[in-house]
Design a protein that fits this description.
Blueprint lengths: L1 H7 L10 E2 L2 E2 L6 H18 L7 H12 L4 H4 L10 H10 L14 H4 L13 H18 L4 H10 L16 H8 L1 H7 E4 L39 E2 L4 E2 L1 H7 L2 H9 L10 E4 L9 H15 L3 H8 L3 H6 L5 H11 L6 H6 L18 H7 L1 H9 L14 H11 L2 H24 L5 H26 L20 E9 L4 E9 L5 E10 L4 H19 L4 E5 L2 H9 L6 H15 L3 E5 L6 H9 L7 E2 L8 H11 L6
Helix pairs in contact: 2-5, 7-9, 7-13, 11-12, 16-21, 18-19, 19-22, 21-22, 23-25
GO molecular function: nucleic acid binding; RNA-DNA hybrid ribonuclease activity
InterPro entries: RNase_H-like_dom_plant, RNaseH-like_sf, RNaseH_domain, RNaseH_sf, RVT-Znf
Protein name: RNase H type-1 domain-containing protein
C-alpha cells in the first residue's frame, strides 16, 4: 500500500515519525528521554539572555512570557515526568542571576516565588500544578463534550460503561490517557453536580448538595437502602422532590438543603459544574489556582503563615504606580532578602559587616535605609520630608507594611522611588567608591518617577476607547403606551429567608397589582435574584399579563437572560427555566434599572416577611405608597397625593 501511494505521490517513505505537530508519537518506558528536548529548548532560551543587563522585573517578565510558556503545548497532552523538574531549577537560577560561570544566592525558595503576588510570591508557575491543570481541561472536555471525536474515542476504549469520574486506567493504556486519568482528582475535588433528572448523580458518592469544595454528603448511607441515584428522590409524576422519602433518609439540615434545590419542569440532563469560576466552566487558570489553594490549606504551616500571606500589603504593593524594579526591591525588603552585608554573612559570604559610609555600624537593612546619616538626609530632602528618627524603633520593613496600608498611593510612589535611589547610592559607594549627594539622589529619583508616569499616561491615552456608554436609568421610567412594567426585587432576611416584592404599573404610573413571596434560601444573592425573576414570571402567567416589561436591578441576571448564555450553576438553571417561561408568554421582555429606580419593589421585598405570599389589586401595602407617588410625579409632575 505504501509503495502504491509512493508511486502516485512523490513522498518519502519512513518507518515512523518521532514527532507529529511537535508532539512525540511513540512514548516508551523512559519518559524523561522522550521529553528531554523541551528542557534543552528552555536552556537555549535562558542561555541566550543577558541576565546582567536585566533587572529582577525584566527577568521575571521573560520567565513568565517566554520560558514558562515553552512547555505549555506539550503539557496540554502529556504529564511531564517529575525528573524534568530541572526546568524549574534552570528558571530559578536565571531569576537569581546565576550562569554557567557564577552561582548566585537563591534568597527565596522557588515554592514561595510560585505563590500568587497577592500572597507574597512572584506569581511564577509551579510547572507540575500547571501541567495537571492543563490535562484536567481535557478531562473537562470529556465530561462536557461527550460527542466530540476525542471523547468518543477515549470512551470506547477506556470508559464504555462508566462515567469519567468512575473510569479506571485500563490495561495497556496510552500515555495520553494515563496523563488525563492521573489528573482526574482535580475535577473530582472541584466539581459539583447541578441536578437535572438525577440519572447520573450518585447520592452517596458525588457532590451535589454541599457546594463547598471537597465535601460529599453528610448523612450516613442506610444499610440495604434502595436509594442509589438522585432520580430515586424525585417524584416522576410531578417532577418535584419527594419530601417524604427525603425526610426519612437524610438528617434535617441536609433534607432542607435538598428540598431547596430547584428542579426544571422537564427534568433535563444532570450538569457538572466547576466551583472555581463564576459561570461554572473549568478554565486552566482556575484549576491551577485551586491546586495552589488546596496545597496551601493542607500545609502544616498554613495556620501560622497565612496571616502575612493574606495581608493586603502585597496587593497594595503591586498596585503602586512606580517602575517595577522599585516594587521588586520593596518586595525583597519585606522578605528580608536584600544583599546587605549582614545578610551576606548569614549566607556564609566572607565580608566585613560595616557600613561603607559610617565605617562604624553593621550594614543591616534598617541601617542602610533609615539609620545611616546619608539615608536620613535623603529622606529629609525628599518631597515628603521624613524624619527617620520618628520611624524608629520600628524596623524599616514594619514601617513599609504600615505605610502600605495607611498612606496614599502618591506617598507610596515617592517612598518606593526614594528607597530605590538609596539602594543605588549604596551600590555606587560599595562597588565604585562613589559618593552621591543626598539632593542629587532625590532629584534623580523624582525625575525617574516623573518619566515613568509620562510613559504610562501616554500608553493609557493611546489604548483608551474613544467613547464610553453613559447610562442614565437611575430612576423609574414608565413603560410605553399599552405596556405594563413589573418591577421585582429580592431581600435576604436575618433568619435566612428570601422576601420578594413585585409591582405592576401602567404607562401613567398607576399601580394595578402587587405581590409578595417568601421562601427559604441561603446567602447566594444571584440565586435570590434569579428566583425573584422566576416569581415575577409566574405572576405574569397567573394574571395573564401581556406586553409586559419585567425590570430588576440585578444586571448579571438580565444579561444572562437576554444573551441566552446560562452559567453552569444552580442559579443558572433557574434563569434557564425563566427563559423558557418567558418565551412561552406573550411579548415579555427583561430589562435592568438602577437600584434607585427600583425602590418601590425593594421596600415591598423587605415588607414581604410581614405579609408573605400576598397579592394586591387595590389598597396596597403602606410601605410602598410614597415610592409609587414619587414615581408617578415622573410621568405627571402636577400629580398630588
Amino acid at each position: 500500500m505504501r509503495q502504491a501511494i509512493h508511486q502516485i505521490l512523490p513522498m518519502a517513505i519512513v518507518d515512523n515519525y518521532s514527532k507529529y505537530l511537535g508532539q512525540p508519537t511513540v512514548i516508551g518506558k523512559s519518559k524523561t528521554q522522550v521529553f528531554n528536548f523541551i528542557q534543552d529548548k528552555i536552556w537555549k532560551k535562558l542561555k541566550g539572555w543577558k541576565e546582567k543587563q536585566l533587572s529582577f522585573a525584566g527577568r521575571g517578565t521573560l520567565i513568565k512570557v517566554v520560558a514558562q510558556a515553552i512547555p505549555t503545548y506539550l503539557m496540554s497532552n502529556f504529564l511531564i515526568p517529575k525528573g524534568l523538574c530541572n526546568m524549574e531549577s534552570m528558571i530559578c537560577r536565571f531569576w537569581w542571576g546565576s550562569n554557567v560561570d557564577k552561582r548566585k544566592i537563591h534568597w527565596v525558595s522557588w515554592k514561595k516565588t510560585c505563590k500568587q503576588k497577592k500572597g507574597g510570591g512572584m506569581g511564577f508557575r509551579d510547572l507540575r500544578a500547571f501541567n495537571e491543570a492543563l490535562l484536567a481541561k481535557q478531562g473537562w472536555r470529556i465530561l462536557t463534550e461527550p460527542n466530540s471525536l476525542m471523547s468518543r474515542t477515549l470512551k470506547v476504549k477506556y470508559i464504555p460503561h462508566h462515567s469519567f469520574f468512575q473510569a479506571k486506567k485500563g490495561t495497556r493504556p496510552s500515555y495520553s490517557w494515563q496523563s488525563i486519568h492521573q489528573t482526574k482528582w482535580i475535577l473530582k475535588k472541584g466539581c459539583f453536580w447541578i441536578v437535572g433528572n438525577g440519572q447520573h448523580i450518585n447520592i452517596w458518592e458525588d457532590r451535589w448538595i454541599n457546594p463547598q469544595v471537597g465535601n460529599t454528603i453528610w448523612t450516613t448511607k442506610p444499610t440495604n437502602t434502595p436509594l442509589q441515584y438522585v432520580r430515586d428522590l424525585i417524584d416522576p409524576a410531578s417532577h418535584n422532590w419527594n419530601p417524604q422519602i427525603i425526610k426519612q433518609n437524610f438528617i434535617p439540615i441536609e433534607a432542607n438543603q435538598i428540598l431547596q434545590i430547584p428542579l426544571s419542569y422537564n427534568l433535563e440532563e444532570d450538569v457538572v459544574c466547576w466551583q472555581g469560576t463564576t459561570d461554572g466552566s473549568y478554565t486552566v487558570k482556575s484549576g491551577y489556582n485551586a491546586q495552589i489553594e488546596w496545597e496551601s490549606n493542607n500545609s502544616a504551616q498554613a495556620h501560622t503563615s497565612n496571616q502575612l500571606e493574606d495581608s493586603p500589603i502585597w496587593k497594595n504593593l503591586w498596585n503602586i504606580e512606580s517602575p517595577p524594579k522599585q516594587l521588586h526591591l520593596l518586595w525583597r525588603i519585606l522578605h528580608n532578602v536584600v544583599p546587605v552585608k549582614s545578610n551576606l554573612l548569614k549566607k556564609g559570604i566572607v565580608c566585613d559587616s560595616i557600613c561603607p559610609r559610617s565605617n562604624k555600624s553593621p550594614e543591616t537593612i534598617d541601617h542602610t535605609f533609615i539609620s545611616c546619616d546619608w539615608a536620613r538626609m535623603v529622606w529629609f530632602c525628599s518631597p515628603i520630608t521624613i524624619m527617620t528618627t520618628q520611624i524608629q524603633p520600628l524596623t524599616f520593613s514594619d514601617w513599609l507594611r504600615y505605610m502600605l496600608t495607611n498612606s496614599t498611593k502618591e506617598c507610596m510612589q515617592i517612598i518606593s522611588t526614594i528607597t530605590y535611589s538609596i539602594w543605588l547610592g549604596r551600590n555606587n559607594k560599595v562597588f565604585h567608591n562613589k559618593d552621591t549627594p543626598a539632593s542629587e539622589a532625590v532629584e534623580r529619583a523624582m525625575k525617574t518617577l516623573s518619566e515613568y508616569h509620562h510613559l504610562v499616561a501616554d500608553r493609557i491615552s493611546s489604548s483608551k476607547p474613544p467613547n464610553s456608554i453613559v447610562r442614565n436609568n437611575i430612576s423609574w421610567s414608565p413603560p410605553p403606551s399599552n405596556f405594563l412594567k413589573l418591577n421585582v426585587d429580592a431581600h435576604l432576611t436575618s433568619d435566612g429567608r428570601w422576601g420578594f416584592g413585585m409591582l405592576v404599573r401602567r404607562d401613567d404610573g398607576r399601580c394595578v397589582g402587587a405581590a409578595t413571596r417568601v421562601c427559604n434560601g441561603d446567602h447566594d444573592a444571584d440565586m435570590a435574584e434569579a428566583t425573584g425573576l422566576f416569581e415575577a414570571l409566574k405572576l405574569v402567567e397567573k394574571n395573564h399579563y401581556s406586553n409586559t416589561i419585567i425590570e430588576l436591578d440585578a444586571e448579571k441576571i438580565m444579561l444572562v437572560v437576554n444573551k441566552h448564555q446560562f452559567p453552569i450553576s444552580n442559579w443558572g438553571q433557574v434563569v434557564r427555566m425563566c427563559d423558557r417561561v418567558r418565551v412561552s408568554l406573550n411579548h415579555i421582555s427583561v430589562s435592568w434599572v438602577n437600584r434607585k429606580g427600583n425602590q418601590a419593589a425593594h421596600e415591598l421585598a423587605r415588607w414581604a416577611i410581614q405579609e408573605p405570599n400576598k397579592d394586591w389589586s387595590t389598597n396596597f401595602a403602606t410601605c410602598i405608597t410614597p415610592h409609587i407617588h414619587k414615581d408617578m410625579r415622573i410621568v405627571n409632575p402636577l400629580f398630588s397625593n
